[in-house]
């Protein structure tokens, strides 16, 4: 019994203690009772100060304000901060200046709260920029509204007319759509909406009429719907006459239509396509090829066969951004985050007047009859809102809208980005190499339609490797018809820089332009191009101009300047003009190496001349660039290896060996000789311009290459195959085999660049140049690398008019 009684006393004590603590807390809480101050801030036209900053400062500021807490004066802070919501409404707790409603009164008496509201506002000309509104108030009671003191704040818009919430883009109450004239529809796609009945907040009643395919699902929190390639939102036909449309999207290497007319059988349906795929030449004669995951391109046009493209800018669209499509009287134009794409292209035209049947669908249509790659519902992108106007907006109006959309979407948790948010989403570049090929039609390849047949540019014919490894991303930004001075150099900030990957192992841009500049001085543009790219973080690799009918003098002048000055502004140089099949005067007349237009190389020239030169230049950037990382060769070069079979399918030749030579790797040159049919042998007449084919694929017993001659049949007489022992990455190499040969790669493309060879063996070795090239300099026996010595060999151009290069030993 005593034990039970003791337990009861203990329990009573604990309950009493808890009661005392609770009472003390209640007393303390009761002793600190602020006034709940709330209000809605609007300008004199009723436009809300959405997301404004609100601050309250106790005045006079020189006092040491206190309130009474449990009978003891307790000092308080003299400033409080809050944020208004989309409707301009805010709330904060302030201790009162005079007694009432049980609030805690500030001492000394005579104080007031000065409440100040600040907003960034609408930039001119549509708005009046940053604004502030202040009221000094005596606060009292349990709660107090201050709306009346903030109902006529300075106007946010120019022109003074009232703008209602229904005419504001973004969330309800976001500070004024700067441009309301001509507004047809505004779809906010808020988290509370059903996309299939998306509300038009313009006041025009153009709500969505349904969905196509699988109904898109609204996203919680941010709103908007995810484009997953299965469905879209059908809009009313009243929007068919729109001439300016702005979207806000989040793009992760997307494909599909942002918007498309659902009558896809002819030219009476317009569309905007976003794609990471190369476009068919038949459908988009001006199309780019995009490979990899750094970004996508946007194009506009109409849904028909033939050539429906209206505009295809080089700008990379990636991350979160607004895209504005303007259908002008003669051409379409795109704006990205309010900035115009700064190019005018051949065959650019307008989509205006083509949407005359059916209705637009936001997020695309299931399929179309046009030759668009990635034609279909929007995929791998989120659509957050869209705005339609019945007129062409000015650049200033588009910029003002973009600024407000950026503010509204940031408030919804989707901040605008100027580049792809690499490293934060699946497929982004983490650790690999990022390569961008920039230039004109010689780079883009598949966008060329003149000549007997289109070809694939060097960036797509074979996958460029970096030290034998496939890059994480390879983007072809080449564009037909553009030049260095007015388009490539000024446009690279839009077309190239957004593809920069800060978390990649390396970023390299290859710039090859000049053939379309008509002999004008493009040297300064090339220098400026690389200087700006290097400031971003790119390594810049420049390529010299090849032969073109009527332009060989320009080729020679431009090439001479590049050879002398490239090291001042670039990181690498691929001297394409040193190739005897492409760079000699008059080469453009060759039917083997140039198309009938005498401008664009044939596919054999791309695969067997262009590609290996650029491949070696890229590898040199990230290769063995000192003796500490150099490959040590412990065995001399082997003799040519006998083939056991050669067969051809189309233009692809498969060479079989008992065992593929170890130094015959993908991207390397291989010399094939002694084979019947003779078309298999790597001669200039057969399309191996530098005397070698380029290896496309490799296995333990086979390699493949591109042959210009088709229909060769199986080889009836076998021959041999041999590859240089030196690899693409070997800027520095160490020999440790003594007697024997070390076979060099061709000097073509390496003009003016050094390679370093150290012999650490007690016996001399012999350096054997490629093909018919000869080593000069370095004394009586320049090819001999004596024991424990180092040789430096530089490649020297034969001449600008004849092309060709030979190794010169300078040490």
Please describe the structure with a list of short key phrases separated by commas or semicolons:
single chain; 811 residues; alpha+beta; 13-stranded antiparallel beta sheet; seven-stranded antiparallel beta sheet; 43 strands; disordered N terminus
Topology:
Blueprint (H helix, E strand, L loop, with lengths): L1 H30 L3 E6 L12 E7 L6 E4 L2 E4 L3 E5 L5 E6 L17 E11 L6 E9 L5 E3 L37 E5 L22 E4 L11 E4 L2 E4 L9 E18 L8 E6 L21 E6 L6 E3 L7 E9 L4 E5 L2 E2 L19 E3 L16 E11 L5 H17 L21 E7 L1 H4 L13 H4 L11 E4 L7 H12 L10 E7 L10 H14 L2 E5 L8 H14 L6 E3 L28 H20 L8 E3 L7 E9 L2 E6 L11 E5 L19 E2 L2 E2 L3 E5 L13 E3 L9 E4 L5 E3 L10 E6 L5 E4 L7 E2 L6 E2 L3 E9 L7 E5 L2
Parallel strand pairs: 1-9, 23-24, 23-25, 25-26, 26-27, 28-36, 36-38, 37-39, 40-43
Antiparallel strand pairs: 1-6, 2-5, 2-7, 3-4, 7-8, 10-22, 11-13, 12-22, 13-21, 14-15, 14-18, 14-21, 14-22, 15-16, 16-17, 18-19, 19-20, 29-30, 29-35, 30-34, 31-32, 31-35, 33-34, 38-42, 39-41, 42-43
Helix pairs in contact: 5-6
């Amino acid at each position: 019994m005593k034990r039970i009684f003791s337990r009861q006393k203990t329990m009573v004590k604990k309950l009493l203690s808890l009661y005392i603590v609770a009472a003390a807390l209640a007393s303390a809480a009761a002793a600190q009772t602020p006034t709940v101050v709330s209000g809605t801030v609007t300008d004199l036209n009723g436009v809300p100060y959405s997301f404004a900053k609100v601050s309250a400062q106790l005045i006079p500021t020189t006092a040491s304000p206190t309130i009474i807490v449990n009978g003891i004066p307790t000092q308080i802070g003299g400033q409080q901060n809050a944020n208004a919501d989309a409707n301009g409404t805010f709330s904060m707790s302030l201790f009162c200046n005079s007694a009432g409603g049980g609030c805690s009164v500030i001492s000394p008496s005579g104080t007031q709260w000065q409440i100040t509201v600040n907003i960034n506002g609408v930039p001119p000309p549509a708005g009046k920029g940053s604004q502030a509104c202040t009221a000094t108030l005596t606060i009292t009671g349990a709660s107090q509204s201050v709306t009346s003191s903030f109902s006529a704040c300075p106007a946010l818009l120019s022109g003074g007319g009232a703008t209602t919430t229904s005419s504001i883009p973004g969330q309800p109450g976001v500070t004024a759509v700067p441009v309301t004239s001509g507004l047809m529809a505004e779809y906010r796609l808020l988290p509370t909406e059903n996309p299939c009945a998306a509300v038009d907040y313009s006041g025009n009643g153009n709500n969505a009429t349904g969905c196509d395919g699988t109904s898109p699902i609204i996203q919680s929190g941010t709103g908007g719907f995810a484009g997953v390639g299965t469905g879209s939102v059908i809009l009313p036909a009243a929007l068919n006459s729109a001439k300016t449309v702005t979207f806000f999207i989040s793009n992760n290497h997307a494909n599909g239509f942002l918007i498309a007319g659902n009558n896809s059988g002819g030219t009476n349906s317009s569309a905007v396509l976003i794609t990471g795929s190369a476009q068919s030449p038949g459908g988009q004669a001006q199309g780019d090829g995009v490979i990899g995951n750094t970004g996508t391109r946007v194009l506009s046009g109409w849904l028909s066969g033939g050539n429906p493209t209206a505009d295809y800018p080089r700008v990379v669209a990636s991350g979160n951004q607004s895209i504005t499509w303007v259908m002008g009287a003669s051409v379409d134009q795109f704006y990205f985050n309010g900035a115009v794409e700064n190019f005018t292209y051949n065959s650019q035209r307008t989509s205006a007047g083509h949407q005359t049947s059916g209705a637009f669908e936001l997020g695309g249509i299931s399929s179309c009859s046009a030759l668009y790659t990635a034609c279909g519902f929007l995929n791998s992108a989120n659509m957050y809102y869209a705005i339609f106007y019945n007129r062409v907006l000015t650049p200033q109006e588009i910029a003002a809208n973009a600024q407000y959309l950026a503010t509204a979407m940031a408030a919804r948790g989707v901040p605008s980005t100027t580049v792809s948010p690499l490293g934060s989403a699946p497929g982004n570049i983490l650790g690999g190499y990022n390569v961008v090929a920039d230039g004109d039609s010689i780079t883009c390849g598949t966008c060329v339609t003149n000549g007997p047949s289109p070809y694939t540019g060097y960036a797509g014919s074979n996958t460029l490797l970096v030290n034998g490894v496939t890059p994480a991303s390879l983007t072809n930004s080449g564009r037909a018809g553009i030049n260095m001075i007015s388009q490539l150099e000024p446009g690279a900030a839009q077309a190239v820089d957004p593809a920069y990957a800060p978390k990649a192992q390396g970023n390299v841009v290859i710039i090859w332009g000049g053939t379309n500049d008509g002999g004008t001085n493009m040297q300064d543009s090339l220098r400026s191009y690389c200087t700006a790219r290097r400031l971003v973080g790119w390594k810049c690799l420049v390529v010299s101009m090849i032969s073109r009918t009527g332009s060989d003098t320009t080729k020679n002048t431009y090439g001479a300047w590049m050879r002398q000055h490239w090291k001042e502004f670039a990181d690498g140089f691929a001297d394409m003009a040193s190739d005897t099949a492409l760079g000699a005067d008059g080469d453009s007349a060759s039917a083997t190496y140039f198309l009938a237009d005498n401008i664009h190389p044939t596919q054999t020239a791309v695969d067997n001349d262009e590609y290996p030169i650029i491949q070696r230049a890229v590898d040199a950037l990230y290769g063995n660039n000192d003796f500490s990382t150099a490959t040590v060769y412990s065995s001399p070069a082997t003799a040519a290896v006998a083939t056991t079979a050669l067969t051809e399918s189309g233009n692809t030749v498969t060479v079989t060996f008992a065992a593929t030579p170890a130094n015959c790797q993908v991207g390397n040159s291989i010399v094939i000789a002694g084979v019947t049919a003779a078309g298999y042998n790597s001669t200039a007449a057969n399309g191996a311009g530098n005397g070698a084919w380029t290896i496309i694929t490799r296995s333990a017993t086979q390699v493949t290459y591109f042959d210009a001659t088709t229909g060769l049949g199986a080889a009836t007489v076998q021959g041999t195959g041999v590859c240089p022992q030196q690899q693409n990455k070997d800027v520095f190499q160490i020999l440790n085999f003594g007697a024997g040969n070390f076979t060099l790669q061709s000097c073509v493309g390496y003009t003016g660049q050094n390679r370093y060879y150290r012999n650490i063996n007690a016996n001399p070795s012999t350096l054997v140049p490629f093909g018919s090239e000869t080593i000069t300099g370095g004394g009586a026996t320049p090819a001999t690398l004596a024991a424990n010595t180092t040789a430096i060999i530089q490649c020297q151009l034969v001449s600008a008019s004849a092309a060709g290069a030979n190794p010169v030993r300078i040490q």
